[in-house]
């Protein structure tokens, strides 16, 4: 990967953050400053050691890996919050610098990334330390034989965690706005909501570490807090790595289908989106929504086993071609049978062309014997097929497509799924798409679509669904 260009506004933003961080740490470096250097060095070394083995993505993955400055919250925050509770603001800001500079950088430009990370963490810890002092954190933590003042000690710890969270959110939104030229509302959208809960948990761990650090047992006892936190951090990072691998597998399969069948490019993603709309309207749990999205995205993966000439044919299929293409659900099921994380999505891939009256394929299942996910995907698939422009048919209006689905409800489609899609679209709307490759497949001459419920409308819907 080549060196990525940093916009001028982003360079200026990073420069301002660096100057502010320098101003924050300067009081600790002045001659005669009562900086507790022993504690600063110990905490700085501890934070650097925690950062070096692995960085754990705990909060935000709002930007993709190719972005110049992804917003991350991988820093080992319990140590930073403990530092904010134990040290004066300038000294606390110093402890964040070694770990921020030494931690691994995955994308270029490495130098600018390290400078930005060091500045943002120094400012965040400085703000957290000031917030903790507003609630007299030193008295609340206790010293030597004095016991901590619980539950009052929760206040400075909560204030420090909140200040850390707000500062990082503000800085991260700013870097998003300057790097990607986003409007402020888009740049900060979602950052705070995703950060609050993890920072609250880290605040509690930081409080426990600070209390043990100030106890008669000293810094060694504080290390026992870090072990379970570090293990949970590692487990969470492993989960995200596995999830990223799942997403990469699905993207690769969908891209292979899109390359082979240019007339369905983008169709899979839209079917996944429409399937989620239906499932959410039906009240499915969040974990099931993810599976039904996988089902919608991968429902046509079996087309990799269908001859290209059949997939790219303009117009209705012959009986022989129809028999060939009707094998794609079984091909798809065989392809994904060993992918365990898909779960029930595999049954939707196999049965999304079954019909409620039993006349579908591949097994002629009827009514409730058709898996629920398959009934969801069948409606989403037919809807997008009718509302997408292809080389042989122009996109039909959403209202016309919904009317055709309602006409076929009970015979071809589950009425509950059709009603759920209708309600969801009435609330959220739908942007119709051009699915055909416009560079190689000019659109047909515009014409008024036949009214829903007429034989012409049924034939048009049938043609679209044959290629869906």
* Major sheet size, sense and barrel closure: 2 strands, parallel
- Nearest-angstrom radius of gyration? 29 Å
Helix content: 55-70%
Biggest sheet strand order reads 1-2
**Spans where pLDDT lies below 50 across 5 or more residues:** 54-74, 434-450, 456-461
Mean of pLDDT:
82
| Proportion of strand residues | under 5%
Count of DSSP helices? 20
What does this structure look like?
It is a single chain. The chain has helices at 8-29, 37-51, 77-86, 89-102, 110-134, 137-141, 154-180, 184-188, 191-214, 219-260, 267-281, 286-298, 308-311, 319-325, 328-336, 345-351, 372-386, 398-408, 415-428, 455-466; strands at 388-389, 433-434. By secondary structure, it is mainly alpha-helical. It folds into 2 domains: 8-237; 261-466, Orthogonal Bundle (Hypothetical protein af1432). The two termini are 37 Å apart. Residues 54-74, 434-450 and 456-461 have low confidence and may be disordered.
Short summary:
Helices cover 63% and strands 1% of the residues. The protein has 20 helices and 2 strands.
Which labels suit this protein?
single chain; 468 residues; Hypothetical protein af1432; two-stranded parallel sheet; 1% strand; transmembrane helix; Cyclic_di-GMP/3'3'-cGAMP_PDE
